[in-house]
């Protein structure tokens, strides 16, 4: 009998944000159990809503958004994104350098497919947002992970980056602000990465989807603003800053040495045209969302939900014997470290499953972010403090007796 298996191209691909532990949580829910989910950065289910003006704009534009748009996006959206790039200090950006996408995820996939031949190398951080490693691998690329250093606030290890460049290296990815660590990279680190890209003639891919969710007076800098002579692709969108993950609207901005990337840009244009266009109703809200009052600022100031929940989870985790965490400065995530000797942990996925079965709380193990030691996990701190308190009490109880077998 003929059977059909998955493609071998998927052998080294993972996306554990929705992976085996999540599948087990779904099975438990089917059996009637209530699961507290700390696994995915999806604001709406936790009581965050889009600004009313954005919702009204979407509704008023639905009737006129029934047809395809230009493959790069509608004029008003791309014009607003171009002006946003100017405010971020990214030089030389025209409206033709702007592409909208069904979230940043689609554009990352498109960029990897357009660039990588079999065996080409691309530098991606560890830990990473796993979509980067997955899409680069599916495109035939060889992903080389450089280390972000927990002892240095999770900043990229510059010497590690330098040591991993070969003649086959085509590009370097940075995720700033970072998911899963919440780190915000200082200008000095970004300048060093730009210098490396300049010296080795690499493309810089900068994932900046959390650039409007920065706390504690930290300043976010777009690396493209520091590298006008390096070809850069900068990604951002509205899913997180405007709490509309389901609307699927992101963008990418091409800047710098575009003359060195003419063939690559042709490939991007071809793939962009093949998917026809991104979600047109969602594009219609970009101009309104990027202009005027930014309600997200209410969440990231003292007294705001994101700020207070971040402070709560940071303190609660560090109060658990055997757990430590670096304070995140942006986004919705914290990436705590486990004392693996204390708990005899040698398999972080098994730890996450044991915690799920015992306490009905869903987290993502560190391996889901291409972190190759079993000593970390990610928590999403979008639930309100009452729910986070419940989860942390369960975690403290769990670790009081846990030994992995």
From TrEMBL:
Q: Which Pfam families match?
A: Aminotran_1_2
Q: Does the keyword Transferase apply?
A: yes
Q: Which UniProt keywords apply?
A: Aminotransferase, Pyridoxal phosphate, Transferase
Q: Name one GO molecular function term.
A: transaminase activity
Question: Which InterPro entries does the UniProt entry name for this protein?
Answer: Ala_Aminotransferase, Aminotransferase_I/II_large, PyrdxlP-dep_Trfase, PyrdxlP-dep_Trfase_major, PyrdxlP-dep_Trfase_small
Residue runs in coiled coils:
none
Reported cofactor(s): pyridoxal 5'-phosphate
**Superkingdom, taxonomy of origin:** Bacteria
Assigned EC number: 2.6.1.2
Aminotransferase class I/classII large domain location, by residue? Answer: 35-393
Class in the EC hierarchy, top level? transferase
PANTHER family, per database record: GLUTAMATE-PYRUVATE AMINOTRANSFERASE ALAA (PTHR43488)
Task: Name the family.
Answer: Belongs to the class-I pyridoxal-phosphate-dependent aminotransferase family.
What's the protein name? alanine transaminase
UniProt organism field: Blautia aquisgranensis
């Amino acid at each position: 009998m003929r059977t059909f298996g998955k493609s071998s191209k998927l052998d080294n691909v993972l996306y554990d944000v929705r992976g085996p532990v999540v599948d087990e949580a779904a099975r438990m829910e089917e059996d009637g159990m209530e699961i507290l989910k700390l696994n995915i950065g999806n604001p709406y289910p936790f009581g965050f809503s889009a600004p009313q003006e954005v919702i009204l704009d979407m509704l008023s534009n639905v009737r006129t958004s029934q047809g395809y748009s230009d493959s790069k996006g509608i004029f008003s959206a791309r014009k607003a994104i171009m002006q946003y790039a100017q405010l971020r200090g990214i030089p030389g950006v025209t409206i033709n350098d702007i592409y909208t996408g069904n979230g940043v995820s689609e554009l990352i996939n498109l960029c990897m497919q357009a660039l990588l031949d079999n065996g080409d190398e691309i530098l991606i951080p560890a830990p990473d947002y796993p979509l980067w490693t997955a899409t680069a691998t599916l495109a035939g690329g060889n992903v080389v992970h450089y280390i972000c250093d927990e002892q240095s606030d999770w900043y990229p290890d510059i010497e590690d980056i330098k040591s991993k460049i070969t003649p086959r290296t085509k590009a370097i990815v940075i995720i700033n602000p970072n998911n899963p660590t919440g780190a915000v990279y200082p200008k000095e680190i970004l300048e060093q990465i730009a210098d490396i890209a300049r010296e080795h003639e690499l493309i810089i891919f900068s994932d900046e989807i959390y650039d409007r969710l920065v706390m504690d007076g930290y300043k976010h800098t777009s690396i493209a603003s520091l590298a006008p002579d390096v070809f850069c692709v900068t990604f951002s969108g509205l899913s997180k800053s405007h709490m509309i993950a389901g609307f699927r609207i992101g963008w990418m901005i091409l800047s710098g040495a575009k003359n060195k990337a003419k063939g690559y840009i042709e490939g991007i244009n071809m793939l962009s045209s093949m998917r026809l266009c991104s979600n047109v109703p969602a594009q219609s809200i970009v101009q309104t969302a990027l202009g005027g009052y930014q309600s997200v600022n209410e969440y990231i100031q003292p007294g705001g939900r994101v700020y207070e929940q971040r402070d709560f989870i940071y303190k609660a985790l560090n109060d658990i014997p055997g757990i430590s965490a670096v304070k995140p400065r942006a986004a919705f995530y914290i990436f705590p470290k486990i004392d693996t000797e204390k708990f005899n942990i040698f398999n972080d996925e098994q730890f996450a499953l044991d915690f799920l079965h015992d306490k009905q709380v869903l987290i993502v193990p560190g391996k889901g972010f291409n972190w190759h030691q079993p000593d970390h996990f990610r928590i999403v701190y979008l639930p309100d403090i009452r729910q986070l308190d419940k989860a942390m009490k369960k975690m403290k109880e769990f670790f009081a007796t846990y030994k992995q077998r």
